Structure formats: C-alpha cells, structure tokens
Give the backbone structure.
Amino acid sequence: MDRVNITAVVGACAPERQQYARRLAAAPPRMLVSAARLAMSPDPLDEALALAPWSDRASGAVVEFPAEVPVARIIGAFAEGAEDLQLREIVCVVDALHLMQELARDDYAVRRVPGRPGIDGIARALLAATQIEFASTVVLVNWEAVETPELSTAMALVSHLAPAARLRLHRDGEDSGSGAAGASGGGFGAAQERPGWVAILNGDFDPHMTDPRVRAFRYEQLRPFHPGRLARLLDERIEAAAFGTVLRSVGFCRLATRPGVVARWDHVGRMISFDPLALDGPAVRFDAARDADDAGVTAELGSEWADAAGLLALGQDLAVIGLDLDVDGLRAALDEAALDDAEFAAGPASWIGLPDPFPSWPGVPHGTR
C-alpha cells in the first residue's frame, strides 16, 4: 500500500507559519491539517497521525504543528508509529525580524506529555532552535524589512544551525510549494544528523553560508567542570556576552561533583539544562532519559548517544555557535571552569564536596547528585 507523503510545517511565529502552510497546501493541492485543529486535542501529535491518513494518497498532506510540539517527537512518531505515513519534508518558517528574539527568550511553553501526569514545560528558545536544526527547508519571511547586513547574519546563523537544510527567502505572491517538496530526499528516519552542532562534533561541519559575525567551534576538555565556577561563568560572563553572544551550545559534559555520569549540555540563548545520559561502564539509561528524548536526543542520534557517552572518558565535548565570539577568550574561560591541578589530583572522593548550585538529577543512583 502506498504511503501518504507528509509535509510538516513548524515555526515559532504562529501567523506566519499558518499563512505559509495554507499556501503550501494550495500548490499543488493537498489536504491541510491546521495547528488550530491539532491544538484542540490533548495530544496534537496523535491527532495529526489520526487525521493525515484521510488525505488523498496521490497528493499527500500538509500538517501545521503548534509551536509547543517538539520537532524531535514529530520525527520519532512518523518514523516509528505510522506505517501508512511518510514524513518527507519539515519546513520551518522563520520570521527574519524576530529570529534573534526567539532564540533569546527565557519563557516556557506549557504542554501535556503523553504517559505522564500533569503538565510539563519546555523552553520556547529550545523549541525554536530545534525546529530550525531539524528542518529540511527553512523559509525566511518578512526579510524585506531587515537591513542587508543583518539579513546576511541571520541567513548565516540559520545555515550554521541547520547546514543540511535548504534556505529560501519567501516572496509574497510566489508559489510556496515550488522547490520545497521532496527536498529531504528519502524522508526522515529515526536517526538524524541534520543539526549543525552534530556536524561540529562529528568534524564535518560545512555551512553553505557564512558571515563575519557568525562563528562556530568545538570545545574539548578532559577534566570535569567545577560546578561552582561553571555556574559563575554562565551567569556572570557568558550570559552578559563577555565573549560575544553564545546562541547555541550542545554536547557532552561532566560535573566533578557527579563522578561517573555523562550529561547532555543543552543551551540556547539564556536557557541551559544538564541531563544525565549514561553511567561509566555498561550502558545504563536513567528515567531522566525521557527528558533527553523531548530535547531531541533519541531522534538526533539514537543509541549513538549512549555509545559516544561511554567513550567520553572524563570531560567535555561541546559545539558552540554564536555572534561576534571571542573564541580564544571563551575557550580559556571554560578551561578555568574545569578542575585545576590540585583539585584534579585530589580525586573523586574530594570532588563530591565541591559547591554545586545545579539542580539534582532524578534517577541518578545513590552516591552521585
């Protein structure tokens, strides 16, 4: 049986996303499942999976998702739980006027999570960043109102976040569907390596567009972080843009007070989180892995995360993307936040007593925080 080809439309700005989805569904004519329709369901993603098969199989369907649905969940659901559906394209609609503001937001979207009681929150800045990172096509709207230097910076930033995506400037009156359908080739599977930060860590980062203001680099450090010094660096210097504006940083890290645990470092703008991924030795996954999955760990690299985490002997492996970055200064500051010679020589039994202002990790075994 032929599968229904699905084009998912995502984006932080609802009016622009809605307008573009309507145009995309009109040329060629396809069934449109709107975000407004999905938002009426307790689980918009389940609703999308139920409605999309009703589309004419020859033309497929355009599904516009509410901003609160993490794009990693969209990819995972279509890859693993929809035998009659094929996710062919993820189009992220980005308002060029508000791109920087969206990545700098410090508020949370409240949502219900299937299988978990109550409600959950996810940073809107993280939602916006991952929508761009996983897109097969990024469409910039309202770009005509942006000065040329700022537009160049915005386009290069998108290219750094999503080097595998096709970048388009939308013009009023043009056929929204032209050149977009099928850009993702064979569609989306459970394992994804689209984000720029994944390419940086893999050593094959090659963005199509560059700009003097936009820089990216990989930071590696064998020693674990001193949590107290790291917190001060984040709060007092990085957030204050002492080294330029760090917009996105992701990777693996270790905190000295939590020996034996590899964590995921996930940072956008003013928001940062650390989630445990694995213990040293045999692969161990925590209950907290559900939070990592919401952030995109499973959809991005699947089991590769656990394998790579096991290979990270002691310290840090981070991808950093930002504007006007003082790369040497930031590297030196991160090095200073790691354990010094005397602290490192004192060993793990001493590290546990160091100041640690970060939240505890649910599910981490006794003896670690």
Q: What stands out?
A: The domain at 213-351 is CATH 3.30.1220.10 (Hypothetical Protein Yjia; Chain: A;domain 2). The two ends are 51 Å apart (CA to CA). The chain has a mean pLDDT of 85.
